[in-house]
Amino acid sequence: MEPTDVWRAIDVQRGELADLLETLAPEEWEHPSLCPGWRVRDVASHLTMGATASLSAVLWEIVRARGDFNRMIRESAIRRAARPTEEIVATLRGTVGSRRLAPRTTVYEPLLDLLVHQQDIVRPLGRRREMPLAEARAAATRIWEMGFPFRARRRLAGLRLTATDVDWTVGDGPEVRGPIGALLLTLSGRTAALPELSGPGLDQLRARIGTPRPAP
After folding, report:
1. Residue 124 burial (10 A CB sphere; 0-12, 13-18, 19+)
2. How far apart are CA 183 and CA 202, in angstroms?
3. Is the Cα torsion angle 108, 15, 26, 90 positive or negative in sign?
4. pLDDT for the residue 62
5. What are the pLDDT digits (tens) for 40-51?
6. For residues 33 and 26, is the Cβ–Cβ distance under 8 A?
7. Strand (E) positions, 131-211?
8. Residue 160, beta-bridge partner list
9. pTM score > 0.85 for this model?
10. Residue 2 DSSP class
11. Which residue has the higher pLDDT, 52 or 128?
């Protein structure tokens, strides 16, 4: 996907997520997400940060977290999540059209954040949201290539991942196959989509990501 197409997709995902969040009951906002220690409201708040937080604010958060990246992400999201839910939704909707990026990120990071974190929200609530194929493929490619913080290529070295619904394959070794959305979640360290995968490499994959990782 070209950057202009990615930005267009980001705007669509932000708007549709804001629409979805408006339908949540108060108790759903407090429900645990797929991210250990994160509520739905924390994840939703996190998705507003990249397009709204200033560089100075990010640096201050890093100092407060003593340089711990995952701690910084989680604690800053929780602090921002103390706002009324209406304000969280309004802030997210206000990012539609923004082309601002968090420091040292590319246009693909907000896309993969939106695709993955929406699943973190909807799956524990028993809701369903399909991932668009081209967008999920672009996000999966970015996670595979980017290194920190997911380090997917190193963690899954010796396995071949193949999408069954779009042309996408990475790695070498025993194959794991499944929908690109399930592979994207797996690359990001989530275990929720493992039942959607199959292939001779699945047992190895389960052994490597069987313990949920804190999610940035």
Report:
1. middle
2. 12
3. positive
4. 57
5. 999 999 999 877
6. no
7. 160-163, 169-171, 175-178
8. 171, 175
9. yes
10. -
11. 128
SS3 letters across 114-179: HHHHHHHHHCCCCCCCCCCHHHHHHHHHHHHHHCCCCCHHHHCCCCEEEECCCCCEEECCCEEEEC
Which residues, at least 6 apart from 207, have a Cβ–Cβ distance to it below 8 Å? none
Spatial separation of the C-alpha atoms in residues 105 and 62, rounded to whole Å: 16
Angle between the N-to-C axes of helices 108-122 and 133-146, in degrees from 0 to 180, rounded to the nearest 10: 110
Please tell me the distance from the alpha carbon of residue 30 to that of residue 159, in angstroms, as a whole number: 37
Q: What percent of the chain has pLDDT over 90?
A: 74
Rounded-to-integer distance, Cα 82 and Cα 189, Å: 27
> How does pLDDT run across 129-171, given as a tens digit for each residue?
999 999 999 999 999 999 888 999 999 999 999 999 999 999 9
**Spatial distance between the Cα atoms of 183 and 194, rounded to a whole number of angstroms:** 8
CB 149 within 8 A of CB 216: yes
DSSP state of 194: G
- Strand, coil or helix: 56: helix
Residue 87 has a CB neighbour count (10 Å cut-off) of 13
The structure tokens listed for 90 are 């309004």
Distance CA 141, CA 155 (A): 15
80 has pLDDT over 90? no
**Distance from C-alpha of 55 to C-alpha of 45, rounded to nearest angstrom:** 18
